[in-house]
């Protein structure tokens, strides 16, 4: 995903002088065929936020976090949320939104550096799931009312075991399965808890949320303000220059990046 | 659960001359301690429906079916529902409610007698899951938008595989697990479909629905009329006389009953 300033356009829906976002090539002056115009979204930026924001906390990751939370979390002050991959681009935004809703936040992430970062974001309990037992944390700090699941498998089973009555599970991803031979996460043995604990489990992909009437509009009416006020922050790692593309991509694919990877091809 | 006429009361909330429902002993003149008064629900029957209705289609089974459907199904005309245990006390009501909502109904049940019964109730596709392959039926008649799950296990996996985008799964029971050594249904291998297909899965037990504001009131404002008009029917098997209790219980426990088992201890 990129953000670009439109220099010239032969299509009425794309206005010269405006900014747009969408899939576009890594080029300083990309030339897009007319057929792709429908996939470019115009951007309004009355608050003058950095344009990189629109590929991060106000882009797909921010939209995923905020819209799924808004649609499914039914957040209540004083309740407890458990956020997995809390150091990631999506999870870190979920942590901040959950805290803004007045919830206690338990957060898991995969490195001590990320633990420190997620604590800074305000999570109440943060742990490195590679060195600390998730089961023990949930039994001590739970039960949980909202589960932001990016992991699936045994973590999902533990969440089912440690859920409160009426808990909401937001199923954003199941990365525990992505490296298994059949690409499937471990089947949840405790699925019966869904009934016993009256759990609602919501799976989604981003286009499904875009189709929910009014939800994206609500995102644009709320999130830029939160970003401007510093209440929701994204962590970016910026590479400057077209030639840095390979370096940035390598960091993303090896997990070495420390925030949303942004390549600034050119300033305005 | 029983229905009784109050002959005498020393508690203001239970009025002599009125009818009540609740747990009560199999006796012609049960004498209940004051402490149990709070668990008796007064019944209004302005339509003069048979009192047995209030332990069946207007009792716990009807409440389970109607309230969970109302809360979770988000029924849309022309969409497809798959109802398991459709010949049972709850499932048979779900079938009728789904048809009233204008849906195509696929129904599974465990005997040819029940298949005939569920067809009478208006289901579009009815099959005996013991003799016909559920997978083949769903692949031919699906995809499904609402899944009424009373079974869990492999049937849940098949439903996940044959769900439409945005499907709603209503998790009422997982009887496939009740006879397994660890009392658990088979873990769903296809749980990842919850994300891919943007499925919402809702588990519940009846007290959880009672706690939803206004839902029980809505049940009472809608269902008695549907029952009176014959739009929702319950099948009852009636035993007359206190001494038939053992016979009725034996039928329920062996599955030999052909409808909601009702023992009429005494008429008014």
Features:
homodimer; 268 residues; alpha/beta; Rossmann fold; 2 domains; six-stranded parallel β-sheet; three-stranded antiparallel β-sheet; 9 helices; 31% helix; 20% strand; globular; oxidoreductase activity, acting on the CH-CH group of donors, NAD or NADP as acceptor (chains A, B); NAD(P)-binding protein (chains A, B); ER (chains A, B); NAD(P)-bd_dom_sf (chains A, B)
Mind explaining what this structure looks like?
With 268 residues, chain A is α/β, with parallel strands linked by helices. The first copy, chain A, folds into two domains: 1-43, no CATH class; 60-207, NAD(P)-binding Rossmann-like Domain (Rossmann fold, 3-Layer(aba) Sandwich), CATH 3.40.50.720. Chain A is built from nine helices and eleven strands. Chain A has helices at residues 60-72, 89-100, 112-120, 134-141, 153-161, 193-196, 206-210, 215-228, 245-254; strands at residues 2-5, 19-22, 41-43, 80-83, 104-109, 125-128, 144-149, 163-171, 200-203, 236-240, 260-264. Chain A has a six-stranded parallel beta sheet, with helices on both faces. In chain A, β4, α2 (89-100) and β5 (104-109) form a beta-alpha-beta unit. In chain A, α1 (60-72) crosses α2 and α1 (60-72) crosses α8. The longest helix of chain A is centred in the C-terminal third of the chain and has 14 residues, at 215-228. Chain A is globular. The mean pLDDT of chain A is 92. At the A-B interface, β8, α6 and β9 of A face β8, α6 and β9 of B. β9 (200-203) of chain A pairs antiparallel with β9 (200-203) of chain B, so a sheet runs across the interface. Chains A, B: It comes from Coprinellus micaceus (Glistening ink-cap mushroom). Chains A, B: One of its GO terms (molecular function) is oxidoreductase activity, acting on the CH-CH group of donors, NAD or NADP as acceptor. Chains A, B: This is NAD(P)-binding protein.
């Amino acid at each position: 995903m990129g953000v670009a300033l439109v220099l010239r356009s032969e299509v009425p829906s794309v206005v010269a002088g405006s900014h747009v976002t969408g899939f576009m090539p890594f080029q300083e002056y990309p030339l897009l065929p007319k057929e792709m115009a429908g996939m470019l979204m115009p951007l309004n930026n009355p608050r003058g936020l950095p344009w990189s924001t629109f590929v991060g906390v106000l882009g797909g990751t921010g939209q995923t976090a905020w819209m799924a939370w808004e649609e499914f979390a039914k957040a209540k002050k004083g309740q407890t949320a458990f956020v997995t991959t809390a150091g990631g681009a999506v999870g870190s935004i979920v942590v901040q939104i959950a805290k803004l809703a007045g919830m206690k936040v338990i957060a898991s992430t995969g490195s001590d550096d990320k633990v420190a970062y997620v604590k800074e974001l305000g999570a109440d309990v943060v742990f490195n799931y590679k060195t600390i037992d998730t089961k023990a944390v949930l039994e001590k700090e739970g039960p949980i009312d909202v589960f932001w699941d990016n992991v699936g498998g045994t973590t999902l089973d533990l969440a089912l075991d440690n859920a409160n009555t009426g808990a909401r599970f937001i199923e954003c991803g199941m990365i525990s399965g992505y490296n298994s031979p059949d690409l499937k996460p471990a089947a949840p043995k405790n699925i019966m808890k869904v009934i016993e604990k009256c759990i609602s489990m919501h799976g989604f992909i981003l286009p499904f949320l875009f189709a929910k009437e009014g939800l994206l509009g609500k995102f644009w009416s709320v999130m830029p303000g939160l970003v401007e006020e510093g209440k929701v922050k994204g962590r970016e790692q910026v590479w400057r220059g077209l030639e840095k593309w390979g370096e940035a991509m390598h960091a993303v694919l090896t997990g070495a990046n420390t925030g949303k990877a942004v390549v600034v091809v050119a300033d305005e």
